[in-house]
């Protein structure tokens, strides 16, 4: 009988970087395995409330039933899931304990820097529950950090998010005197929406011709208020798109000269939107949160990482004028990442 793969992870909606990567991984597993069962653990909302956890608990219980059921049908079986941050790790305890009890090979995919950057007692307990688990991380630095902090981890594979970003067929173009700034994310203070507005206002006051386009859902009232206030200075040069997908997202990147991602989110790992912006040849302004530095250090693209405040990047924006939008630096990264990912899929399915 074939090997069963039971994948338990949050699928869209809502759509965010982790959900997008999970969809791509599920698609790849579907092509390689004829016995794949997917359990969707999505709470169906980004807002954590009582309803959020009720939906999540119901789906976790349903998944646990499948773990037990399939253990009676298959001798060779694999359980794949995402390592949760915050209280979500208690769902990991429950599902991984069951998977170990019923002799599944366990694969744990890390999409957060929380447990790698700083030692976590709660995650250390998970490594003790799953001493033979295979861990999947996004960068070499993430692998080294996990190895140095957790003695129970023995198997770590690196699979960058870069390979999941489609490389568009674009021609290098020269950025003109009017700079188009763009940000695509869940628009929260932590993700940097207010800092992006501050930079645009400062550049406008300094006399530079700019537009700022914000794409993605507005999650917090304080961000909505900051947008209203910024309209006073930016006027029609502030464009709010809301969530974008497909052709609308492609159009956003094509029109963006400098992509902003000034995140202070403490669990930032490897934001897919940065790779997407690089694939369109955009210049990048970002923070040093999580493993963003690792994902950019091999790139020769036009990148600026500020250390204290985003206003440090003002001169960088001026330097982008007359520069070429060119995605060739990203293409090499994409090819290397694809090799890593293909190796990972074969390992899970073997």
TrEMBL record:
A Pfam family per the record: Glycos_transf_1
InterPro entries to which the protein is assigned, alphabetical: Glyco_trans_1 (IPR001296)
GO molecular function: glycosyltransferase activity
GO BP, one annotated term: lipopolysaccharide biosynthetic process
Superkingdom, taxonomy of origin: Bacteria
Keyword terms, alphabetized: Transferase
Glycosyl transferase family domain sequence ranges: 176-300
Protein's name according to its UniProt entry: Glycosyltransferase family 4 protein
């Amino acid at each position: 009988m074939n090997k069963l793969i039971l994948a338990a992870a949050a699928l869209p909606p809502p759509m965010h970087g982790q959900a997008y990567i999970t969809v791509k991984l599920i698609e790849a597993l579907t092509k390689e395995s004829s016995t794949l069962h997917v359990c969707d653990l999505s709470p169906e909302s980004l807002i954590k409330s009582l309803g959020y956890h009720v939906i999540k608990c119901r789906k976790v219980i349903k998944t646990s039933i499948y773990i037990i059921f399939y253990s009676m049908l298959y001798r060779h079986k694999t359980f794949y899931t995402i390592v949760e941050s915050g209280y979500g790790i208690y769902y990991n305890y429950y599902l991984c304990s069951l998977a170990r009890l019923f002799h599944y090979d366990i694969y744990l995919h890390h999409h957060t820097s929380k447990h790698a950057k700083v030692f976590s007692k709660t995650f250390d307990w998970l490594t003790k529950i799953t001493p033979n688990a295979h861990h999947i991380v996004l960068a070499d630095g993430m692998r080294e950090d996990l190895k140095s902090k957790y003695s129970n981890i023995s198997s770590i594979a690196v699979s960058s998010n870069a390979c999941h970003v489609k490389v568009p067929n674009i021609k290098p173009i020269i950025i003109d005197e009017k700079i188009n700034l763009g940000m695509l994310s869940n628009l929260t203070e932590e993700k940097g929406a207010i800092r992006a507005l501050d930079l645009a206002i400062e550049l406008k006051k300094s006399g530079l011709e700019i537009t700022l386009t914000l794409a993605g859902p507005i999650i917090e009232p304080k961000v909505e208020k900051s947008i209203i206030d910024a309209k006073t200075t930016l006027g029609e040069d502030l464009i709010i798109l809301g969530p974008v997908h497909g052709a609308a997202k492609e159009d956003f990147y094509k029109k963006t000269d400098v992509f902003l991602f000034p995140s202070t989110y403490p669990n930032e790992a490897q934001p897919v939107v940065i790779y997407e912006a690089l694939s369109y040849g955009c210049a990048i302004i970002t923070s040093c949160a999580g493993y963003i530095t690792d994902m950019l250090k091999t790139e020769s693209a036009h990148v600026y990482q500020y250390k204290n405040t985003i206003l440090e990047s003002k001169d960088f924006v001026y330097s982008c004028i007359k520069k070429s939008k060119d995605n060739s630096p990203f293409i090499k990264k994409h090819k290397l990442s694809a090799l890593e990912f293909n190796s990972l899929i074969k390992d899970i399915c073997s």
